[in-house]
Amino acid sequence: MNDPPDGGDVPGAPQRTDPVRVPTAPINIPPIFDKQGLPIDQVRELVSSEIRDACGDGELCVDVVVDRGDSDTIDECSYLTSDPASHPDEDFVLDRGSTLTLLTGSRTPCG
Asked: CA-CA distances (angstroms) from residue 101 to 48, 61, 67?
């Protein structure tokens, strides 16, 4: 069976869409700057939960990864900051499909 025409250049005619190219709205989560010093696993769980809620479908639409930062003021098992950075009193705006990196300190050992 032949596909119906896509409407060409007729104004108001329906067009085919490519789901991969359809733009989606960014998501907003509460700021995470105030979690500094908490165990990184706890922060990752909290942030992942906030992102799942904001995505609206229970899926994690932003990759959350952990990396070791270069500050020796906090140990490598504790949250230090993020990339992109979170700011006080502002929702954290993230694009769907982007990556949020949670950075730990560099001091060893943990604890």
From this structure: 12, 14, 7
Q: How far is CA 76 from the centre of its chain?
A: 21
pTM of the model: 0.75
Give the three-class secondary structure for 12.
Answer: coil
Residues 103 and 83 sit within 8 Å (Cβ to Cβ): yes
Given this model, what pLDDT does residue 21 score?
45
* Single-letter amino acid, residue 111: G
Place of tokens 């995505």: 55
Q: Cα–Cα–Cα angle for 84, 55, 99, nearest 5°? A: 30
